[in-house]
Amino acid sequence: MSLERITRLLQRTMGLNAASVGRLAIARPAETRMQALGLPNLSAYADRLESDGAELERLIEAVVIPETWFFRDSAPFEALARLLQERIAAHPGRAQRILSLPCSTGEEPYSIAMLATDLGLPASKVTIDAVDISEQNLCNARRGRYRDNAFRVDDLSFRDRHFRAVEDGYELDAAVRARVRFRCANLFDPDFARDRERYDIIFCRNLLIYFDRETQARAITILESLLLEDGLLFIGHAESGALARRAFVPLKHPRSFAFRRGTAPTRDSSPPVPARPRPWKPWKPRRQPTPPATLAQAAHPQATRAAAPPAPDERLADARALADEGHLAEAAQLCEEVLAERHDAVDAYLLLAVIRNTAGEPDDAEALLRKALYLDPGHCEALALLALLLERGQRHEEALGVRRRLERSQRRRPEAS
Ligand SMILES: C[S@@+](CC[C@H](N)C(=O)[O-])C[C@H]1O[C@@H](n2cnc3c(N)ncnc32)[C@H](O)[C@@H]1O
């Protein structure tokens, strides 16, 4: 109950939905803080959080997920390069105002700053604001020093151009750093959006995935209020569901997840461009290492190998790749989107079950597996994982029954064993 009070408080304050990160991701830091403060239980810690804003900020720092890297997903930056030049050509008299929210440790707004620099667009043509709720993230961003983890794309020529090697990694050029104005703020703080000059372009990527539907809708309303009438919104690739039935039109830039504010599905870009925009070098993602074994593979490697047909849906394939890379919240969101459209997507139930189980939610995982098995009673992979879950829960009788079902199914479907 006390943990629920804490998760509700976090949801109210910053939008975080416990289901998207897993309850443990909140329970662990809450318990650590409770012990550090010498409080007897989580109920006392919940009381403290409700009356102590500084403590709430400390907990927020502990639960945020700062995962980011330079030129994360190449397509949005390729699209931005083109759209930015088109908009500048269409409105030569004023600067394009860009907001990166959340900016985390700075990789996203600095990527935009490097892109603008490479395109020869001075600060008088492009201004960049960057906002995040975490002061710690912003402190790292302002420092401008990064380790290998921030450089995950294949083509690192931008690093040669804009960084110098230092003892503990790479330091970003001061002129590029100076192009970004950082600010600590919570998207949901009513003071944040009030009276703010509107933006031409907002990057709000990989934030909505941590919210439930209702909070996503609140966030979109705020972002809308921050955008000019013809402004552009870039979201993360697992987040397009949040814009369904909202006044945003997708732009025809494959995989950029860029949208124009408005309802008319007209042009995908600004007014005619006088000069041809300079193309932006595509940034190919670095090839991923062999994905680690999933829990399902651990449960039944042979069945898993044979029972993994080509993905029926591109988003499900993306979800698998994301899950294998450890991006569980994004992967879960994609599965849910697939399931919202296709209630019979057995593989989406199965993948979501693996994710929920990995996030420490075996009950949810079991419910999802039972849905998969309702649709396909002989699904070997689902049976193998369910048996494993039941065994872990000390429900040996039930596990035995499922294992027998699995054996029967494997006899009937030798190709799946
Ligand atoms: C996964 S990072 C995304 C960074 C970057 N946009 C990207 O896609 O690489 C998520 C960030 O959201 C920030 N955040 C979470 N809730 C927020 C809120 N309510 N307002 C502002 N920032 C928030 C976290 O501090 C974290 O740095």
Walk me through what this model shows.
This protein has 417 residues and is of the alpha/beta class. The protein is 50% helix and 12% strand. It contains 20 helices and ten strands. Strand 7, helix 12 and strand 8 (227-235) form a beta-alpha-beta unit. The chain is globular, with a radius of gyration of 23 Å.
CATH homology group of the largest domain? Vaccinia Virus protein VP39
Low-confidence stretches: 266-275, 282-310
| Integer-rounded radius of gyration | 23 Å
Instruction: Trace the largest sheet across and list its strands.
Output: 6-2-1-7-8-10-9
Shape: globular
Percentage of β-strand residues: 5-15%
Overall domain count = 3
For the record, the CATH architecture of the largest domain stands as 3-Layer(aba) Sandwich
Largest sheet: 7 strands, mixed
What is the number of E strands? 10
H and E order: HHHHHHEHEHEHEEHEHEHEEEHHHHHHHH
Give the number of helices.
Answer: 20
In brief:
The protein is of the alpha/beta class.
Topology:
Layout: H1 2-14, H2 18-21, H3 24-36, H4 42-51, H5 53-63, H6 74-90, E1 96-100, H7 107-118, E2 126-132, H8 135-143, E3 145-146, H9 157-162, E4 163-166, E5 169-172, H10 174-177, E6 180-184, H11 190-193, E7 199-204, H12 213-226, E8 227-235, E9 248-250, E10 258-261, H13 295-299, H14 301-306, H15 314-324, H16 328-341, H17 346-358, H18 362-375, H19 380-392, H20 396-412
Parallel strand pairs: 1-2, 1-7, 2-6, 7-8
Antiparallel strand pairs: 3-5, 4-5, 8-10, 9-10
Helix pairs in contact: 1-4, 4-5, 15-16, 15-17, 16-17, 17-18, 18-19, 19-20
The site of S-adenosylmethionine (SAM) has 22 residues, from loops.
